[in-house]
Amino acid sequence: MVYCADCHEKMRHGTTSYFEKRKDHFVCFSYRSNTGTCSAHFIRAVILEDMVWKHMQGVIGYVLRYEDHFRSEMEQMLHLESESALKTGRKELAAAEKRIGELDRPFMKLYEDNAGGKISDERFSTMSKSYEDEQQELKERTKSLQETIEVQSKKIDDLNRFVQRVKKYSEPDSLTPYALRELIKRRIRAAESGVRQSTSPMTLLGTFRWISS
After folding, report:
1. Do 141 and 85 share a structural domain?
2. Can you tell me whether residue 41 is helix, strand or coil?
């Protein structure tokens, strides 16, 4: 769950039976005693846990106080369409699917008329191509609409799920493994201003579950 912000490799958890818990730490996997491809990014586990919890508390507090504003901001960030737009899209999808089925009947009638000599082959070719072109356009449109509706619906469900999960953690005063698994997808430890020293100040970049853009 912990990644280096510079090389994006995982950070190894270091611990032994000789360590006190406060000495557990994470170090960049790419670092090999100054011979690897990255610097000695290092952070104590207790410090990381405290940073993560403070970050989570800030987000939880903000969502609980300003839920409507949070939803509005997330809808813009995630490019969510309004419910009315989704409803219009579903209606268009249903109409397109219905029209695809309807086009089979005139095409069959056209085929029968051509076979019975009621219309010429040239006329049949022209009209059948028109039906086929319309049907193909409708199939492409329905595929696009289905994909858009599925993506948008999932994002809306994910946003609702995230807000529900946040409300579960309005009381706890410490970080728990369960809360971490439910809310945080990934943690990144980064050096300030591009400095790659293990003693530089840390910036924590957290990605929360269900609301990634």
Report:
1. yes
2. coil
Segments forming the whole domain that contains residue 107: 80-164
- Let me know if residue 213 belongs to a domain: no
Non-local (6+) Cβ contacts of 206 within 8 A are 52, 55, 56, 184, 186, 187, 188
Structural domain tally of the chain?
2
Rounded to whole angstroms, the Cα distance separating 212 from 148 reads 17
Instruction: Give per-residue pLDDT as tens, 50-98.
Output: 878 888 888 888 899 999 999 888 888 878 877 788 889 999 999 999 9
What the block records as the tokens of 88 is 């219009």
C-alpha span between 74 and 156 (Å, rounded): 10
Q: Which two tokens stand for residue 206?
A: 């957290």
Pairing of strands 2-4, 184-191: parallel
Number of separate helices (H) and strands (E) present in the chain = 6, 6
Q: 137: part of which helix (H) or strand (E)?
A: helix 121-168
